[in-house]
Specification:
With 359 residues, this protein is of the alpha+beta class. The protein contains 8 helices and 7 strands. Strands 2-1-3-7-6-5-4 form a 7-stranded mixed beta sheet, with helices on both faces. The chain is rod-shaped.
């Protein structure tokens, strides 16, 4: 998973600063932040790539929705200038730049709603999960989204939907756009859950067949990823429940059915993760039982061989003593008689063990 190490020192350092101090807490990122300004309504759409923040101005035309998407939250100056332009609360700006903060929903002004979530994406051919924070500020006819990294726009499908005027995105307000963006994040949760389920299925085969000596390590890796995924997704359920339950001025009643649908999807994903976590717990027991059974089989095989050769070894030891008065030394063909006795004993023991189904 991303951002597992090196975060505590940054968080502790941030605790020593005054509230509202803009300090980026997250994975090391370099370069400027990318900004897109999308203004749209049912009849038109305009997309501008902002290279100079002086070109970013609040919309003055009525009945026009504005979506500002910021790719990269590591630049404190960019966040501060956007915050000053749209009069964002200092604590809101601080939360935007803290990628280690858990998902939350909060209102800093009567006309501004803050929401932060984390995306989950399979990486390394599905062997790991990448976590990225996304924050939203919802205002009247305005939505600002902040994406932690500037590598790619995770909401590119929504932007393409706006360009093509597909569905209700162009005809609805920014509250519906907020739903569409959060629903895109939840869809990524489904993809991540499916990736975890594929890894779980592969682990089940490894445990049953006992092929790999690193199975236990792989089980605990998957258990850690499932726990991390649930830690990311569980707060989203609470936030959606709060959006549905509370009468927020930024959310119209006609958007509530869509939010309830997203809430049901999150419940479904959490159920999938809980089931996977239960299977993981049973896989550990099965794996340890398999190792124990394998060791028992090895010990059983060694014991059978020891039991077969024990009387033969005793006979060889007796007649291997160098005493001149051993009477059997004078028996004609005594060497062959001893061999016959040893072979008879060996065959008899093997027949007995097979009759008892011990081998």
């Amino acid at each position: 998973m991303a951002r597992r190490r090196g975060s505590r020192k940054k968080i502790v350092h941030n605790l020593l600063t005054s509230p509202g101090t803009l300090q980026y807490l997250g994975r090391e990122v370099s370069g400027p932040s990318g900004i897109l300004e999308i203004t749209y309504n049912a009849s038109f759409i305009e997309i501008r790539k902002i290279t100079d923040l002086k070109d970013l101005q609040p919309a003055t035309t009525q009945h026009v929705n504005t979506w500002i998407h910021v790719n990269g939250i590591h630049n404190a100056d960019t966040i501060a200038r956007i915050g000053n332009l749209y009069q964002l609360h200092p604590l809101l700006q601080e939360n935007v730049m803290n990628a280690y903060r858990k998902p939350k929903l909060d209102s800093y002004k009567d006309d501004q709603q803050f929401l932060s979530v984390k995306t989950l994406q399979p990486v390394n051919n599905g062997e790991d999960l990448g976590i990225e924070q996304v924050s939203f500020v919802l205002g009247p006819d305005l939505l600002i989204s902040f994406q932690e990294h500037g590598e790619h726009n995770v909401f590119e499908p929504i932007l393409n939907r706006l360009k093509a005027s597909v569905g209700k995105t162009r005809t609805m307000g920014t509250d519906y756009l907020l739903y569409a963006l959060t629903d895109m994040v939840i869809d990524q949760y489904f993809i991540a859950a499916d990736s975890l389920d594929e890894r779980l299925s592969a682990l089940e085969e490894m445990v049953i067949e006992g092929k790999s000596t690193e199975t236990l390590h792989a089980i605990y890796e998957l258990k850690r990823d499932i726990t991390s995924a649930r830690r990311v997704i569980a707060p989203v359920r609470e936030m959606l429940n709060q959006l549905i339950r509370d009468e927020l001025p930024q959310i119209r009643n006609e958007i509530l059915p869509y939010l309830r649908d997203s809430y049901d999807h999150v419940i479904q994903i959490l159920d999938m993760l809980d089931s996977a976590r239960d299977v993981i717990a049973s896989l550990v027991d099965i794996h340890l039982s398999t190792l124990s059974n394998r060791m028992n089989q090895i010990m059983k095989t060694l014991t059978i061989f020891s039991a077969i050769f024990l009387p033969v070894t005793f006979i060889v030891g007796v007649y291997g003593m160098n005493f001149p008065d051993i009477p059997e030394f004078s028996i004609p063909h005594g060497y062959f008689w001893v061999w016959g006795v040893m072979i008879t004993i060996t065959v008899s023991l093997i027949t007995f063990f097979k009759y008892k189904r011990w081998m």
